[in-house]
């Protein structure tokens, strides 16, 4: 890590980082409480986790300005574990998930993110924007909230969007929170507040070792949950990292982020917190409020704890309408509206991938499944496209005894059927030449198809020569090919 760049990430944007961190800290409180409820644990478990994860990733994470805390993506994975085995097993699973994430970072396998296409990323962003908006609907349900909630949301949105036209000195979301809280307390309005979400902790977290048996049976119980949390957490964190990189026009370290997430989760499990990962909503709030450095994430974590433990009675009076308005702003700002206009001009396969990711994520509320579907579709469409470019041409010698086949394109599992169909194995020939100068042989399926073609011609008595293999094609054929091995023709004839 570049020490000079690391120092600048702390002191290069102090004022904006502090102010944006304050906004994020307030926005984290209801989210952390809600995610604790989802997991079936006390609200303080999510709040302690959000504090710990934010502070630790600020120090050792790979993406300055990105907000990590307790999240719904990891909370939903822990529901069954908490129900069947209790809180202590959740804490142990959180520690183990951190160890797995550190191992991923140290082994430097986060490079697989480069295979996530732009279409998948767009679908991921759009799906998250929709989920963020849908998560606000309970706070706008007329059967649950008073009618006054709606004008308060509109007023908060007006402050959020109009204040920057006058001044950008103070983040407009922070002003919206302060103004609505002040008015609500002054007039005594009966609206839902942060305090209605659950009790805020009034003590600092303490170090503890999960009270579980240290044996193989315990490992069998927690390992599947830890592995799922580690994978989903890293997936969401790395996708969010890519988005923040794009928004800020900067680069960051994926491997360091994996390590940072692992260290954060590992330590969090020892102070009574649940697992978490990067949060796209809060990260967007931070960036849009001017936060760019590690200080913004640190301030968010520290102030979250201060707000809960020291200023709990005041923070609990914040109207949920103010926070709903902020999350609506995040939802609108996160959604890639241009992707709708571009559906007509982008390749159909790209649009299908993007829409598939959105539909699956929104339907399942599981980012990992949606991204996996998108990556698989991208791979299938890419393979199909490359396979369509593959073709063979052939020429017969004047005496009709020799035919030359010229192979063009990429020979891999998706093209082997067309490759075999292009040969006329019923033709009586003395010699067959297969010229692969304009082709590349990629995998075992391609080598097997080449073997079969050679052996079928030899079965009918023709001499076969393969010409023009480049170094990599020659290497894979040399390692995996069977046509020139002793007894290869006899084995084929037996089948």
In brief, what are we looking at here?
The protein has 495 residues and is of the alpha/beta class. Helices cover 62% and strands 8% of the residues.
Helix content: 55-70%
Element string (H = helix, E = strand): HHHEHHHHHHHHEHHHHHHHEEHEHEHH
Question: How is the biggest beta sheet arranged?
Answer: 4 strands, mixed
Secondary structure tally, helices = 22
DSSP strand count: 6
Radius of gyration computed on alpha carbons: 29 Å
Structural class: alpha/beta
Mean pLDDT over the residues: 89
Kindly estimate the percentage of residues that lie in beta strands according to DSSP. Answer: 5-15%
Q: How far is the N terminus from the C terminus? A: 59 Å
Overall description:
The protein has 495 residues and is an alpha/beta fold. It has two domains: 3-347, no CATH class; 389-494, Transcription Regulator spoIIAA. The protein has 22 helices and six strands. The chain has helices spanning 3-11, 14-39, 43-60, 72-75, 79-85, 87-106, 118-134, 149-166, 172-187, 216-248, 254-268, 280-288, 294-309, 312-315, 320-334, 338-341, 348-364, 367-388, 416-421, 444-459, 471-480, 488-494, and strands at 68-70, 276-278, 391-396, 402-411, 431-441, 463-467. The strands form two sheets. It has a four-stranded mixed sheet with strand order 3-4-5-6. Helix 2 (14-39) runs antiparallel to helix 3 (43-60), helix 9 packs antiparallel against helix 15 (320-334) and helix 10 (216-248) crosses helix 11. The chain is elongated.
